[in-house]
Design goal:
There is one protein chain. Helix content is 48%, strand content 20%. The protein is of the alpha/beta class and 140 residues long. It has a single domain (2-139), classed as DsrEFH-like (Hypothetical Protein Ychn, Chain: A), CATH 3.40.1260.10. Strand 3, helix 4 (100-105) and strand 4 form a beta-alpha-beta unit.
């Protein structure tokens, strides 16, 4: 048990340091967004929202990240279901992220996750870190 707690703390510290470095590189004069979702089908309206914001904001549009978590996270391994979402996300510069805690809790094989989806070990922590950097956030 002590090993598990120590390992978890170590992973969170490493994640925190990595996220801070990346977030500090972002232009604070841009509008940045993060969405936490529990359902893969919600990716379609989320990506359409990113597209509309990009068209509306032009050069003010910054980073747009979507964190997928929860009991249905295993759906991200379905290449048929995810293919179109991944293609649209890349087209509109939307980053798709998977919550590592959810992957572990619901026993999702990480090797089956498409390479275009980045894993963050703690999706909720990542969301809060981005909010601390000025990201606008919504959870669905």
């Amino acid at each position: 048990m002590k090993t598990y707690i120590f390992s978890s703390l170590l992973v969170m510290i490493m994640l925190f340091n990595t996220t801070n470095t990346k977030a500090q590189d972002l232009d604070r004069n841009k509008n940045n967004y993060v969405v936490l979702t529990k359902k893969v089908p919600q990716l379609q309206p989320i990506i359409l929202t990113a597209q509309a914001l990009k068209a509306e904001e032009g050069d003010k549009f910054g980073d747009f990240q979507v964190i997928i978590c929860g009991p249905l996270i295993g759906e991200i391994t379905d290449t048929e279901k995810m293919g179109n979402f991944i293609e649209q996300a890349q087209k509109f510069k939307v980053q798709l992220l998977a919550c590592g805690f959810s992957l572990d809790k619901f026993k999702v094989d990480r090797t089956k996750i498409p390479r275009e989806i980045r894993i963050v070990e703690n999706g909720i922590l990542h969301n809060f870190q981005l909010q601390n950097k000025g990201y606008k956030s919504v959870s669905l």
